[in-house]
Amino acid sequence: METPIRIDSRFPAMGTTIFTVMSRLATECGAVNLSQGFPDFQAEPALFDAVHRHMLAGRNQYAPMGGLPELRQAIVDKVATLYGPRFDVESEVTVTAGATQAIFTAIAAFVRPGDEVIVFEPVYDSYVPAIETVGGQAVFAQLRFPDYAPDWDQVRGLINERTRMIIVNSPHNPTGSLLTAADLDRLAGLVRGTDIVILSDEVYEHIVFDGERHASLCAHAELAVRSIVVSSFGKTYHITGWKIGYVVGPAALMAEFRKVHQFNVFTVHAPSQLAIAEYMQDASRHLGLAAFYQAKRDHFRQLMAATPFTLLPCRGTYFQLARYAGMSDLPDRAFAEWLTREVGVAVIPVSVFNADGRDDQVVRFCFAKREATLEAAVERLCKAW
Ligand code: PMP
Ligand code: GLN
């Protein structure tokens, strides 16, 4: 249908998210899809049975704006057990339509036109568009290649009176790097005495390998009081399509968060909230996730050893970065497309997470897949090299 309206695009240069682009291309080409991050295996039937049961029991009307009390309680209990602080069930936890909405809402609640928000490159692709939608300006700090550690001296130089927010993400997508307790101490020192809000994207909080501990901002007394911490059940319970997550934070920050949340989402799917609340009662389900994915990581890395890719360290998340320098001269985006079309394995080029397009010839593989899927992918890679 033609429209007579002349559209003055708010985002003239914006394309479609790389995850959609690569998954579509994978489907078109019949490629093994190790690009977009989602499991290709099922969650436990107990979770689905619970949703069904709650639907039949009539729990199908609006949940309270902050989320159903059963789920808020389960979240507060989990956070207290793992990280220490006990957030108030009424005023310090909100159930969201996934982490993406939580991040967008937090940015909309705190960032005003002209405010600056510090993000770390490679940066997860939803942060900067959200900042720009509300008239804020993203300011880029670099995670140092190839270990992707933050440079806190650089961050110190980026902070000024316009800095409203700093967004951190650990375990980090796409690099699989982690912030340490020492990193959090450095961050705390930098924001001490300022009004900077920290937005902490911890959607992979339960996927940390090799005995390392997840350094949650909830567990850092000085940072927790100025932070909104985001998580997602999509990652934890293998249900990315349900789009349910949550935020925790001090009541005064949460009150601002909810002012936006109530008018762009209000509340999320009620029977799923009840099912998740029930499912959370068995802590082994989230505590077992690290070992589950570590086995997949190790299996995938072992398979990949037969290819000429250079694997970078993977300390958390379900993503493995690999360098193809020496295998191809293509820029990473062209390489990812070529790999999808010609070799039949879809991956994500990492340069798309860099504002200046910096390209280290690194691509991201998602190993949240069945063994047979990972083996089929690597078999194709081995045929090509
Ligand atoms: N942040 C990061 C770092 C992610 O990797 C993802 C999803 N892969 C999200 C946020 C969004 O999570 P959700 O699907 O719950 O919106
Ligand atoms: N976060 C997922 C990834 O990194 C994708 C989510 C999405 O498609 N928006 O692959």
Textual characterization of the structure:
The chain is an alpha/beta fold. The protein has 15 helices and 14 strands. It has helices at residues 18-29, 45-56, 69-83, 98-110, 127-133, 152-158, 181-191, 221-224, 233-236, 251-264, 270-279, 284-287, 289-304, 332-343, 371-384; strands spanning 32-33, 93-96, 116-121, 137-144, 149-150, 163-169, 197-201, 227-232, 245-248, 310-311, 319-323, 345-346, 348-349, 362-366. Helix 2 packs across helix 11 and helix 4 (98-110) packs across helix 10. The termini are far apart. The mean pLDDT is 98. The structure holds 4'-deoxy-4'-aminopyridoxal-5'-phosphate (PMP) and glutamine (GLN). Glutamine (GLN) binds at residues 17, 19, 36-37, 173.
